[in-house]
Design brief:
The protein is an alpha+beta fold. It is built from four helices and three strands; from the N terminus they run H-H-E-E-E-H-H. It has a three-stranded antiparallel sheet with strand order 1-2-3. The longest helix has 18 residues, at about 110-130.
Length: about 140
């Protein structure tokens, strides 16, 4: 098997890791050493990174507390993290609010801010969906 060429079509993090692990075919790093290690290098490990993604979301959600709502995260069958918003005191006929967060959403450097924006938007949608009747309903 031929090694991957180090050119502009090569994914930079893959090339950088090949250089770090001492692949004899790659004698120069694909990107500068200051940027060679991905920002979230822990998700490139061989263990189940999807469970880790849900744990990252859950850890960030622990920073939020609301008197009416509870926040949690779990992994769906496809391996994506699912943000769950539910009432502290369940009401009949009100379902949980679920939002799928893909790994690329969790991996960004602005994840904490993006999660806060998403959380506020989802809370607004969740409360608005609880209307039983509106002037527009028939």
């Amino acid at each position: 098997m031929k090694p991957y060429p180090l050119n502009s079509t090569c994914y930079p993090y893959v090339c950088a890791w090949r250089w770090f692990i001492g692949d004899s075919a790659s004698t120069t790093p694909a990107i500068p050493l200051s940027r060679a290690k991905p920002r979230h290098w822990f998700r490139t490990a061989s263990y189940n990174r999807h469970v880790l993604t849900a744990e990252i979301v859950q850890t960030e959600l622990k920073r939020y507390e609301h008197p009416l709502l509870k926040f949690s995260a779990e992994t769906n069958p496809h391996g994506d993290a699912v943000l769950i918003i539910r009432l502290r005191e369940p009401i009949e006929g009100v379902d949980d609010y679920r939002l799928v967060l893909h790994e690329r959403d969790v991996g960004g450097s602005q994840f904490a801010w993006n999660l806060q924006r998403l959380l506020y938007d989802c809370m607004h949608d969740f409360i608005a969906e609880m209307f039983i009747r509106t002037p527009q309903s028939r």
